[in-house]
């Protein structure tokens, strides 16, 4: 029987003129058959901390009063063998020279999405991809991303990528978890400080993953797989 996986994608500072140097694209994936069980596990942690099922897990909402809750969520990710995370880190968008490569920022952005996702895909499996709704361009972006992924995978019959759709992150626990992990990776790579709660989460990720979170991991790393992308010299 063909295995099917859900992939939940999030991003940080992906816009061309957002005055942020570092961009992070990230994805959490798990077997479709485990998705509901994992979501219920996250909700159980919310109940344990006297939080309602609708409480939104989000990096920007990490605070000292909720630090232990978020640490428990990080531990849940590492303890759950069916959850995996992959992130692509662009350390300095100011080095991009799209004109020299005959591309728009959107063209480059979708190339980066493929680079982020390609190590997850296996030709014999099937995938359902979920993107967070961030603006009114969600549906066209999802359609364009599916075109790019299918073409690069030679999936012209569109059997490997079964669907790409936009959803609201606060309604999908795994997507909210992706937001949290992407936020931690971005925080570590920006070398930020000033939030003791966020610093504790980054440190917990470092301890549990045995990675600094700022360097490329081995390609076959399955729990926390990181790729630090570098612009070609001609782009500088």
Helix content: 25-40%
Helix and strand succession? EEHHEHEHEHHE
Rg for CA atoms = 17 Å
Which regions contain 5 or more consecutive residues with pLDDT less than 50? none
Comma- or semicolon-separated keywords:
single chain, alpha/beta, 236 residues, six-stranded mixed sheet, 19% strand
Structure, described:
- With 236 residues, the protein is an alpha/beta fold.
- The protein has six helices and six strands, in the order E-E-H-H-E-H-E-H-E-H-H-E.
- It has helices spanning 35-48, 67-79, 105-117, 138-152, 173-189, 196-209; strands at residues 4-12, 23-31, 84-90, 126-132, 161-167, 224-228.
- The protein has a six-stranded mixed β-sheet with strand order 5-4-1-2-3-6, sandwiched between helices.
- The mean pLDDT is 89.
Topology diagram in text:
Elements (H helix, E strand, L loop, with lengths): L3 E9 L10 E9 L3 H14 L18 H13 L4 E7 L14 H13 L8 E7 L5 H15 L8 E7 L5 H17 L6 H14 L14 E5 L8
Parallel strand pairs: 1-4, 3-6, 4-5
Antiparallel strand pairs: 1-2, 2-3
In short:
By secondary structure, the chain is an alpha/beta fold. Helices cover 36% and strands 19% of the residues.
